[in-house]
Structures are given as structure tokens and as C-alpha cells.
Queue: 4 jobs
Job 1
Amino acid sequence: MLLFNTMVVVQVKINKGWLDSNSFDFHISHKASPHCDDRECDDISLLVIHNISLPPGKFGSNHITDLFLGQLNPNDDDYFKDIYKLRVSAHLLVRRDGSVIQYVPLNKRAWHAGVSEFCGRQKCNDYSIGIEMEGTDELPYTESQYSSLATLTEAIMANYPDINKQRITGHCHIAPGRKTDPGKSFDWQQYFASVADNCILKQ
């Protein structure tokens, strides 16, 4: 059901860029990545949705975290031999079970978008927040993932009012021809229907 003109009180707090939740039903763990730096602009005005799985199509391991922390072992899988030296990260990862890991504080620049452009503005890393969904372009995402993504989105929108539904996009949209994620399997209609139009922080 689409939600119009509704006001949601967000339970997730943000302290110095780090998300925190006191809910037993929504756990966020923190694993600080060295792959980040200071933003080159003041505005945070875009949310970018990605997908990732390591090795491709396999879920549930710690390999994504290892990659974002610069600790991926090239001997764990042949695929890793080509990527283990990459210096990449995202602000957040939503696992298949809906659990969330944060790697970079939201006020810092994560290295998730690469060469990119949104509405004529380049260098999306400078002004965006990147969320990785554990998944592939082909396999459906889980209901737990959509629920967690909606919770994260509402918290981000409440803290960064320049981000609204019109400024939420996929990696495929800001890097067309180079990237395809989050893929055809991502249900944008379901996602947007689960995110309130107006969000306020819990006092």
C-alpha cells in the first residue's frame, strides 16, 4: 500500500555519522573501513542502492566485509585474485537476513559509486550515501532486506532532508553502461511503497 502524506517517527539514531538502534528487532553492527575520506562538499543529497555478493551469487560469508576492510584473502576464491586489492566501500550493507553492517560514517565519503553522474552532477561519491544489498541482479531480494532498507532510508531522510524519494537511485542509473546493480530483481515499487514520504526523528 502506498503511503501518502504520512509522518513516521524514526527509531534509528545517527551519532557522528554512525547509525544506532536500540531495537532488538533491528541490529546494526559497526566495522570501520579505511576506504573513505572527507567529503568535498557540504551537502548530502543522494542515496544510491547497490548490490554485491562474494563470490558472485553466494551469500552469508564475511567476504564482503573483508573486501571493504581491505582484508580479502585472494586464496579464498579464484575470483578474489582480481579484486582483493580494490579500495572500495559502502556506507551500509543489508544482509540477506536483514541485518545491517555499517562501514563508513554517513558524514564521510565512502568509495562506492566510481565514475558517476546524477541529474548532470558528477562525482556522486561526494554527495551521496551508498547502501549495498547482499544479492545479485537476477535473484529476488528478501522481505527482511526490504524492511531493513526502508528503515535505513527513513532514518537517512529524517537526518538529511535533501534526500527524498526523487533523490534515491540505483548504481545502474548513475553509471549506465558500466554498472547494472541493483538489477532487474530489485523491486523499486515495493521499496518506495514501504518508505514514508515524511520522516521525523524520535526525540
Note: Confidence is low (pLDDT under 50) at residues 1-6.
Job 2
Amino acid sequence: MRVDSAHRHIAALPEEVFRAFQEPQLLAAWLPPEGMHAHLEHFDLRAGGGFSTVLTYETHDAPGKYSAHSDAADTKIVSMEPPRRVVWAVQFPSEDPAFAGTMFMEWTFESVMSADPDQTPGSQVHAEVGTEVTVQAKDVPHGIDPGEHVAGLASSLAKLAALFEHRHA
């Protein structure tokens, strides 16, 4: 069983990050990797619910797995444990068996506090509160290139982090 994973520190509380998994407009903003945009359909963002996604390539030089320039997925939300964990079962409708199947994605959110490395000795400790977000994709269809998939996961996490960067700029 293949497992692809990525993680990122996000400068926001777990409750804030978790909200980006519960609001359709936020999910559509960060979920597609760089070079794609998403259209969410039929969304019910709670445990037992789900959503359908069409990811469209912004350039036409990348072939889609669902149509000429798009990928599609039907996602069932298997588990939602605010603000710690989300599990998705992602079904890929594709006529090519190398890209078809169900992939399970587990997203975890761990609260972290890190000391300011630039503090003056003897001064009060300044800390940054944040969330370590980890995603593990299991049972990834074998037609999906592992390196490209991990890069896509990292890109999605970077877009998720960007939702909160304006607060610290």
C-alpha cells in the first residue's frame, strides 16, 4: 500500500485551520495545487457528508485524468473530529484503471508553540502559536506519479497556510 504525505506549520490555531475544511469557499481556495483551480459541487462538509470537485488545469499543456484538461473526484467525509482530524475517502471517476479507485486522506492538526529564536537572553520568552498540519494519502492510484502527488500536497498546504499569512505580515 502506497502512502504519500506532506506536512506544514501554519501560523494559526487548530480551530482556525479546521474552519478551512468546513467552509466551501475556503476549501475551494486552498485545496487545488498550484496551476489548478477548483469548482466544488454538492458539498455537505460534515462527517457522513462529502463533496464533488472538478480541478481544472490553468494551462492546456497538462493532460487531465478525467477529461482533456481536468481531474474530478467525489469525496466522502469519513470522519471529522474538530479541531484535530479529518478523514476523506476520495473516489476518482476515470476510465483508466491506473487512475481509478478510492484513496483515503487523513488530515491531522496538532497545536504547537515555538519559542522565538531571536530572543535576548534573560528576556521574556516570545512564542508563536500555530498548527502542524499533516496529510497522509493512502491507497493512491498507481497511475498518479508519487513525486508529483507529494508536490501537489505540499502546494495545497502552502495555499492553506497563505490563508492565514496576512495576519502576520
Note: The radius of gyration is 17 Å.
Job 3
Amino acid sequence: MFPDRFNNGNPHGEIQGRKKDSFIYATKEDSPYYIKDGHGDIARWDFFGGNFEGIRQKIPYLKDLGVTAIYLNSIFRASSNHRYDTQDFMKIDPMLGTEEDFKNLIKDLHKNRIALILDGVFNHVGADSKYFLSAVTDKTGPYYSWFNFINYPTKYQSWWGVTTLPEVNKNNADYQNFICGPDGVLAKWTRMHLSTAGAWTWQTNSQCRSCGRSASACRMKTAMP
């Protein structure tokens, strides 16, 4: 499910967490349109403003469709509408709602026996993430070793050559601990009762892309009761 495109559950359709240098559609009937610059890069991200509350309100609709699980795009703070350019793995994107909204969604999905799967996109981050911005300004900082620089600070490995998505060094022990450690990303969100409702997933057959461990060893998953 692409949360931004699904449903806005705010009383009058108001949109929270508006983003700099973006635009919001006037109606639900508008057709998505990318505004690109002269180099073909996205110049303004577009938003409908779908959020957690919108999904929660549509649970009866999902049940009528026979849905037993929903798989969400990345939910972390980001600049884009798809949110795969994560800025901070420890914070929910404010346009989606709050941590309390997320808990309420999980609770009501669980009541209706619908599992929730989150997309663990830990292979790369956004170029405007707290991690990468630190790395390109401070070689002695905690995040420099997370990235593979070819010509510091302007040339670096990125996802499919997309420079707004710098790849993370998945063999870095600090990064592995940040994602999979006892106080890491997976632990934080799983403790928020995600484990009673669903799972994390990685788009890989054998390895967690964040830490290189076997997916079965790193994945935090429990069956829905």
C-alpha cells in the first residue's frame, strides 16, 4: 500500500507535516504529475496527504475485500512521497501522523485480524538524511564509515546511480548494530506492538540487506494470533 495515495483520515482533509519545496493536490481526482528540472530530476514532490488515520478508517473496506495483511511503503521521515529516501529511521514521517496514530492503526488492524508488514529499506538512505549530511561534512563523525565514498565528498556509491539515494556500507558493524541491535531500528518499532500484528520484510531471498545476516536471523517476525 502506498499510504500517501490511499486515504486522508483527517476530519476536513487537512494535511499535517507539510514539506518544503513540494505541492499538494487540490482534489482526490487529480492525476499524479511529476515536476522535473532541466536534468530530469524531481524538482517538487507531489502529495495527496494519505495517512495512518486514513488507513485505520478504511479497515471495514479492507475486510470486505478479504484483505488479511497490508504491506506498507516505508513510513520513516523522508522528503519524497514514496519515502524510500529516509531522513531518520527513528521517526515516523509527520505527514503520516504520530507514533500514537501508528499504535492505534496496529491495534485496530490486530482486532480485525489484519497483519501489518513494514518495508525495511536499509540498503540506502536519502542524501538529505541526518546520516549522510553528517558524513559529507565530517570525516571524523559517527556516520562517515557508513558510506562508500569514491571521491569525497561529492562522489559516492548510490542505489542504481541515483545520487539522492546514497548506499550504505552494509558490512559496517556500527550500522549493523544501528539496524539490528537491541536498541536499534527494528527493536524500537517492533516493541511498539508491531510483533503482535505482523512483520518486517526485506526484498531479498537470503540476506538482510542492512547487516548481511541471514534474513531469518535478523528478521523480527511473529505469527498473528
Note: Confidence is low (pLDDT under 50) at residues 203-207, 214-225.
Job 4
Amino acid sequence: MTEKNTLKKSATLAAAGLVVAGALLAGCGESKATPMDDAYAGNSGETEKSQEEQSQSQSNGSDSSDGSDGSDSGSSHNDPSTTTSDKKDTGNYKDGNYSINGQYGPVGEDSIDVHLTIKDGNVETVNIIGHPFTTISKNHQDDFAKAINGVVDGKPLKGLKVDKVAGASWTSDAFNKALEVARQEASIQE
């Protein structure tokens, strides 16, 4: 094989490698969140209710997970490509429990389930269930879950946003996206 052919082959392989790397990193670091009662979000089985329990309670006409009378369970059926609720944030929030899945990571491989209890427009409690892809992610998610209540409990939901909590910047970003969805889901529509 001549030196010219070897050089062409090397250049072709390098270009192919760059195309593949670019495709893998295209969504690098973008967080997104969806309501967990969304038809496309699924349920990890580790959340407050399993899918089977949810479908049974919904077919019976009642879903008391958000503390409402069952007339509006706060569910939202979105296009799977969107990252927020189809509801508008009115700034006036209904008391209840809200569950949102926040996804993040270089290629979206990590996620957290965010369970919020809202009372009188304030965050009463937060429970985080992590779904890490790596040990490093698990450590960040565990540290975040331990620290987040001290940061947000008792704070108004309106405009709430956290900075890097417990050194977990991507987990914090996913949590902020989940807060956006929670505001939309909890909003009393006028």
C-alpha cells in the first residue's frame, strides 16, 4: 500500500470518527423534564404509585395522589418531544403532590424522579429518586437528594430555582426543569 493511500485511509477514518462523536454529543448536557403522569413518561416502579395502581385508580375515576377531588388530577398528555407541560404557569398554585421525571447527562442517560408536595404556594417537601447510569452519577444524585430539602423546603414555588446543590450541577439543572413543569402542572388555570 502506498503512503498516499495510507494517508487517505487515515483521513477517512478520522472524519468518520468525528461524525460519530458529533452525533453522540449533540444533546450534551441538555436537561429536560416531563410530568410523570404523562402518557409517554412511564413509571420506574420506584415512585409513589406503580403504573398498575395508577391505571386502576384512574379507571375507577379517582386519583387522589395530588390531593384533589378527582375532577382534575393534574395530568397532562404531551407530545413526547416536548419537555414541559401543556399548561400555563399562572403563578397561582393548587395544593397537592406532583411527580416529574428530569432527564440529563451527555446523552440523557441519567434521570431523577422529583416528588414535590405543594401547600399554600410553597414547597412543603421534596423527595428525589435517582436513576443513575454510573457510580459517579449515583454519588451526585445521593448527595443532591440529601441536601435539596434544606434548600427548597418552605420556599415559594413561584420563581424557585436552585444553583448547584451538593456539587451536582447537572442534577440541579434537571431539578430546575422539573420545577418549571411542577409550576405548570400545579397552576390553577383561569
Note: Residues 98 and 182 are 6 Å apart (CA to CA).
